[in-house]
Amino acid sequence: MLKQIQEGHLKAERHNAVMTIEFSHPQSNSLPGALLEAIAHEIHAAGNDDDTRVIILQSGGDRTFCAGASFNELMAIETAEQGLNFFMGFAHLINEMRRCPKFIIARIQGKCVGGGVGIAAAADYAIAVDGADVKLSELAIGIGPFVVGPAVERKIGLSAFSSLAIDATMWRDAEWARRRGLYAELHGTPTGMDESIARLASHLAHSNPDAMMQLKQCLWKGTEHWDHLLQERAALSGRLILSPHSRQAIQKIKGGR
Fold first, then answer.
1. What 3-state DSSP class applies to 187?
2. 112, 81 in Cβ contact below 8 A?
3. CA dihedral for 194, 195, 198, 200, sign (positive or negative)
4. Among candidates 213, 207, 220, 245, which has minimal Cα distance to 151?
5. Of 111, 199, 217, 257, which is the most buried if we count CB atoms within 10 A?
């Protein structure tokens, strides 16, 4: 199944109980609202599919896993309500990943920025390749990593999250991300990464689905309030993105591309 969505695409295919969901966008795999919604929908559907045992989430290309929010859509926000609706796209996706009863393996083949870091953190097991550096750039555009923050902090801890959130212009390399627990594995080549993903996905596809579901619930214990929390954070981001500081910062970044 291949869907064209706002210049990008979403593809979902199941083989031997493994559902692979791939998103792509020509702007460094950035995520407009419609693509966020489509990814969340496919994860929800796979979670309810008895023939699916495990999910692989990946993006197209070989340079950037995800550049985060669509700058075109950020610039188009004119009201706090529109801001809330846009950032709720990330909130909804993270919550769908959290609630999904199936394990989600993220294939991180390139750099992660902003919301892309949040998606990697919300995966149950992220496998990356050298060069998959990370940066939380939100403060640099006048907001903050409020929506993705709970997922990132849960995965790497408050200290490492604080470093990423405060120094919003500095890249941390993939080894830094592995040592902090964002990536469960780091491989020197895409081939090594894909072999490890295939091995783990095959193993999970033959594991007890009830046991995996119960284990995932244990691993995510204490996040039951995230439906409300992430909505609050989305509203905060939606208000801040309207500030003159944010408008100028986004325009400057877009002009430099």
1. strand
2. no
3. negative
4. 220
5. 111
Residues 6+ apart with CB under 8 A from 61: 24, 29, 109, 110
Q: What is the pTM (predicted TM-score) of this model?
A: 0.95
**CA 84/CA 162 separation, integer angstroms:** 24
> Helix or strand or coil: residue 111?
strand
Question: Could you count the other beta carbons within 10 Å of the beta carbon of residue 212?
Answer: 17
Task: Give, for 22, the enclosing helix (H) or strand (E).
Answer: strand 18-24
Rounded Cα distance, 34 and 14, in Å: 22
DSSP 31: B
Neighbours of 37 (CB within 10 A): 17
pLDDT tens digit sequence for 68-109: 999 889 988 999 999 999 999 999 999 999 999 999 999 999
